[in-house]
Specification:
The chain has 387 residues and is an alpha/beta fold. The protein is 39% helix and 13% strand. The strands form four sheets. The chain has a seven-stranded mixed beta sheet with strand order 1-9-8-5-4-2-3, with helices on both faces. It has a three-stranded antiparallel beta sheet with strand order 7-6-13, with no helix packed on it. Bound molecules: pyridoxal-5'-phosphate (PLP).
Length: 387
């Protein structure tokens, strides 16, 4: 079976992990700050906080700006539910901004329209979370300009996008945002099994993130109410969580990070091969990359015109599965999920582009370990759907 995505673990990655298993620290130890520093350096950000997955990273990022009941967070409906769920964990409410028909990212034009309306109604968001869908950066200059005008935080969900860049700045540099979150789930660009990281250039946010990651507990005297107790002493000064990453995972992450450019290069090679092979098929649209963007190509999403094909998505997915080719749909619009339907009142007609995108989208296999033969096999089988 050729899956839609999978990890690439080398012998050296394994050696680095085994080394840690022989060491004194297997939970959060010395490798965590090394991994954080390496990621911050790679992205050109000042600070980084490793966490046990991106969902927990989003949660404490939202907590760090004190997102709470009565606050509103906006994001893209074309994302994994976690982006929105984490705001609900904080007691905040969530709303969605429709996507751009070419990039499938949160549309800055729709964002501006919605902000104008929200301003009149006194319902401006406290934070907007652009999601760099499939590895392609959102139009961060426009979003950042709007954030200054309407004063909201910008938190990038870059779960798909480490290794990519925007206007020659690496995703994660936080040049246009307050914080950026990465996921290291095995289908993403680099992996730690489960894992995530939050980058920022803001020292105060970074302090809060590190506190919230570990129960809200501090050992820093300057933060404690009581001084001179003794070596055993620590204080819990906020309600935090255990969202720590282990050194075992960080060792894998550090080793994977050394290979990231090679991973992204191969992903882009395969995407390019697909683009060339499919560009003349009238029932399928190929990938699109904006000029100022260097996509990490986490996903290769094709829009199938199922009407022109005279076949349903279900038929095609089943057919490809029988041929040993895995596909997936990224994403079911978040407001479609029963939890969101039963608890809130989103209207599908408010998101026409998301709706038409969702009708057509299918992600086909893309991962660095894919061989040229496998790529050709996928191309043959997709081209043959309609002869
Ligand atoms: C994978 C993903 C997440 C969640 O990541 P985890 O590390 O699995 O918690 C959040 N947002 C997006 C866009 C994702 O793709």
């Amino acid at each position: 079976m050729i899956p839609y995505g999978r990890q690439d673990i080398s012998d050296n990655d394994i050696k680095e992990v085994v080394k840690i298993l022989y060491s004194d620290f297997i939970t959060q130890g010395p490798v965590i700050p090394q991994f954080e520093q390496a990621a911050a350096d790679y992205c050109g950000a000042k600070y980084a906080t490793a966490v046990c997955n991106a969902t927990s990273g989003l949660h404490i990022a939202y907590r760090s700006i004190r997102l709470t009941k009565g606050d509103i967070l906006w994001t893209s409906p074309n994302t994994f539910a976690a982006t929105a769920n984490a705001a609900l964990y904080c007691g905040a409410s969530v709303d969605f901004v429709d996507i751009d028909p070419k990039t499938y990212n949160l549309s800055p034009e729709k964002l501006e329209e919605k902000l104008k309306l929200a301003e009149k109604e006194g319902k401006l968001p406290k934070a907007v979370v652009p999601v760099h869908f499939g590895g392609q950066s959102c139009e961060m200059d426009k979003i950042s300009a709007l954030s200054k005008k309407y004063s909201f935080y910008v938190i990038e969900d870059a779960s798909h996008a480490i290794g990519g860049s925007y206007k020659d700045k690496k995703i994660g540099s936080c040049e246009y945002s307050d914080m950026t979150i990465f996921s290291f789930h095995p289908v993403k660009i680099i992996t730690t099994g489960e894992g995530g990281m939050i980058l920022t250039n803001n020292k105060e946010l970074d302090n809060r993130l590190k506190l919230l990651r570990s129960h809200g507990i501090t050992k820093d005297k300057s933060e404690m109410t009581s001084q001179g107790e003794g070596l055993w002493y620590y204080e819990q000064i906020d309600l935090g969580y255990n969202y720590r990453m282990t050194d075992i995972q960080a060792a894998l992450g550090l080793s994977q990070l050394k290979r990231i450019d090679e991973f992204v290069k191969r992903r882009r090679e395969i995407a390019n091969r697909y683009d060339n092979a499919f560009k003349n098929l009238i029932w399928l649209s190929v990938s699109y990359e904006k000029k100022e963007v260097f996509s990490a190509f986490h996903l290769y999403v094709s829009l199938f015109d199922f009407k022109k094909l005279g076949k349903t998505r279900k038929d095609i997915m089943n057919h490809l599965k029988d041929k040993g080719i895995g596909t997936q749909v990224h994403y079911i619009p978040v407001y479609h999920h029963p939890y969101y339907r039963y608890n809130f009142t989103y209207k599908r007609e408010d998101y026409p582009i998301s709706e038409s995108y969702y009708e057509k989208a299918l992600s086909i296999p893309l991962y660095p370990k894919m061989t040229d033969e496998e790529v050709e096999y996928v191309i043959e089988n997709i081209s043959e759907i309609k002869k």
